[in-house]
Amino acid sequence: MSPDLLTLPTVAPFAASSPFSPAEFDEYVMSTYGRFSLTLERGAGCRVWDDQGREYLDFVAGIATCTLGHAHPAMVAAVTQQIQTLHHVSNLYYVPQQGALAKWLVEHSCADRAFFCNSGAEANEGAIKLARKYAHTVLNIENPIILTAHASFHGRTLATITATGQPKYQQNFSPLVPGFQYVPYNDIAALEATIAQLDQGDRQVAAILLEGLQGEGGVRPGDLDYFKRIRQICDETGILLIMDEVQVGMGRTGHLWGYENLGIEPDIFTSAKGLGGGIPIGALLCKSFCDVFKPGDHASTFGGNPFVCAVALSVCETIEQENLLKNAQYRGGQLRLGLQKLAKKFPTLIQEVRGWGLINGLELKADASLTSIDVVKAVMNEGVLLVPAGPTVVRFVPPLIVTAEEVYLALRSLDRSLTSLTEA
């Protein structure tokens, strides 16, 4: 049928909001999250508004995901153009947008190849599979082990919660996936001892999977000497170094990739969250020497479709065009300085301030009788959204477009909240 014979139906405008209550929501949606009593309806820049019309500064950014904030013109244009052109095809065909995104990522990193999927967990699953195939086919290891760190977080699939060195995420999901062992983070002696012990048995270390900064583990940066020694060990033994860049990549730390803060290059690394600016996409990237996947080894139905790749590429290009790496450095420095001043003002409450760029943590003292949730709720009442990183750490991960004034306003609201909490 020719287009001139088609009669398109009249479509009612999409409702921007609905009267769907939290009680109705909980009736139909699985209870996999402990949700705050807040319903957000729209956003612009670093601000969001709830269903009562109240405005909040968003220093959660979808948990380090909304790189360009909300409704950024570059993303709006990319979404509009691509959804009107071609939004999805199978990976059985060449996808120019996927190729363009892969080229940008390769040219702006140490990687040579890219594979696209839908999330950080899937990217890490891909890295695990790639490392295991490399171990079997190149290193001739029959029982490969991947070392990960205590307090790490790598995803919610069975393999990635096994890789995650936090028992609370693994409880009631056994049997877990074999082939993982945990070491203390930033402890090179323990890592070397574990490698030596495993090499004496029937299992061998094939890869080491680490975050450059542990996000969910309490915003804990890696030590420079620790990672440099790991890189040396991997070079000497053939062990693969995998970096989980899901939360710290895409400019979050003030560098495009978290590993740049540590003066090393991984063999494999993963990306998601900030890569799509809020549009679901994940990426597995590697150097050519360990690119051992062949057709049929790995796949993703939705991974790298024209829509998500066009939007992700707009995020990448905007980071360059708007000089957001420098902004993350400057605003991150401003935020840490402000948090450090609050730590001096509330010495009985605050233990430490730490972070890189625009991923920062405020650790509460264990005997402060307050939790990170208490602080998050108090600051929410002041019109600022923050997110916990464990029971005693409050995380600050605003969009990379955040301004000096917005950082100042967030710090002022936190000051008022901490004052009210200590006086209560």
CATH class of the largest domain: Alpha Beta
> What is the β-strand count?
17
Task: Determine Rg (CA atoms, Å).
Answer: 22 Å
Strand order of the largest sheet: 4-12-11-10-7-5-6
Count, helices: 13
- Helix and strand element order: HEEEHHHEHEHHEHEEEHEEEHHEEHEEEH
CATH topology of the largest domain: Aspartate Aminotransferase, domain 2
The overall number of domains is 2
Within CATH, the superfamily of the largest domain carries the name Type I PLP-dependent aspartate aminotransferase-like (Major domain)
Query: Can you summarize the main beta sheet?
Result: 7 strands, mixed
Named CATH architecture of the largest domain: 3-Layer(aba) Sandwich
Low-confidence stretches: 1-16
Give the integer mean of the pLDDT values: 94
What share of the residues does DSSP label as strand, in percent? 15-25%
Structural class: alpha/beta
Cα separation of the termini: 72 Å
Provide the helix percentage: 25-40%
Give the overall form. Answer: globular
